[in-house]
């Protein structure tokens, strides 16, 4: 055990040094201008830590290897004091990933399913510092889970638990809605020892975390994420914010939770679209720093979409491990943590330009990721084969890589939104782009501006071409038939069926019978004519050809 602990310390030291030099592990790089140096005195201190680890390691307690993943870090003393009583009897039922921070601010991420309510209650209450708790959720989740978590926190009668239900939706992630949390706190006369519990997805987690950060200059809070997006990304790392009409997440701060409690059972009620949106962030980790994880996703995407419990738990745990390592190296996003925003600069522009709530965050990030891959290949930084794999896995996850035909996005809209991105420094836009083999990325402002504008222009040209094809189909329509029974695409060679499905507002699904006009047009072009399915907001993608 002492040797294992010593080796863990050595690995930790290597990661720390690498982070300070501008890289976490060898697969993520920063520009030299952003890489701080390591002082000689610091190196001496590190060497003393290694010696200490090798000599006194036997005095520390461990999670036995049989009780944890080989990829998990050791659980810090602070985290351990909260779970020691649970690990002995319940360690096989959940995983614990530790987010290790300076000044003893580290915290655990509990990941499991079918938690015993009594044990789960103990877990949550162990992170409550005072006697008052405010649970905040949204109007969609309140009927499903609010009573359950309120009861778990109240068990034992030691805590007074109050609740607040906010409206759901990205468009509600505003200062006005967040102020309702502060209003409630003042109405209830809550003091600095109150603990907020954010029960919900990324919107609730971000708003409640921000409210916790600014109420009486900071109170404790607990994250209880209920979406894949929140479980693998937004609940971990302490980023809190609300949106501004001119930019996403532009008003906020860093405020770390006391713990993150992930119960994958809540994913049973998650809509398919939300599930797919969260998977976009899972894909991200494989692309920027974990090639083996990406390859695992390629083989197991169907299991994730089918909500296989083991697959989901593994994907969430490995994503959290990846994020915890990056947050430890760069908590305030001074450098390496920015790589977690692959595709986000383009994606945030799409969310803002289309109107908050039109796209789910992961959907916009998926398009942004495809754009980042395309741009990277355009500059010769990655091979075309990797670009194809990225598009394939996004499509396998039912995620968009194109804008819909009715998108309001223009080149000017993109560039205006990107100019106020949080990664802009001294007026210079910096992007996260892929470079080298799978699992490698760079955070840089030194890129070809023409490649960026061409990537944006190509995306918009695809939208124009899709709309043109749709208009052609309308011209050649002889009649409209009843809605399809399902959203699958079927081509009858004798009928040459063109399918258009519009899920934007009314869920209309129409079948257009193409006759001689469309066939003649395709022949005149002397190239295959794409049969496209348009689904909002995932549109278009090619299903077949004439």
Question: How would you describe what is shown here?
Answer:
This protein is of the alpha/beta class and 546 residues long. Helices cover 45% and strands 16% of the residues. It contains 17 helices and 16 strands.
**What is the average of the pLDDT values?**
78
Give the beta-strand count.
Answer: 16
Helix content: 40-55%
Strand order of the largest sheet: 5-4-6-7
Low-confidence stretches: 22-48, 50-81, 83-91, 476-546
List keywords for this structure.
3-stranded mixed β-sheet, alpha/beta, about 15% strand, about 550 residues, 4-stranded parallel β-sheet
Topology:
Elements: H1 2-20, E1 28-30, H2 40-56, H3 77-90, E2 94-99, E3 107-112, H4 117-125, E4 132-138, H5 142-154, E5 160-166, H6 175-187, E6 195-200, H7 202-214, E7 220-225, H8 228-234, E8 239-244, E9 247-254, E10 260-263, H9 272-288, H10 291-305, H11 309-329, H12 344-354, H13 361-378, H14 384-396, H15 411-419, E11 431-434, E12 441-444, H16 449-475, E13 497-502, E14 508-513, H17 516-525, E15 530-533, E16 541-545
Parallel strand pairs: 1-12, 3-10, 4-5, 4-6, 6-7
Antiparallel strand pairs: 2-3, 8-9, 11-12, 13-14, 15-16
Helix pairs in contact: 1-2, 4-5, 6-7, 8-9, 8-11, 9-10, 9-13, 10-11, 12-13, 12-15, 13-14, 13-16
In short:
With 546 residues, the protein is an alpha/beta fold.
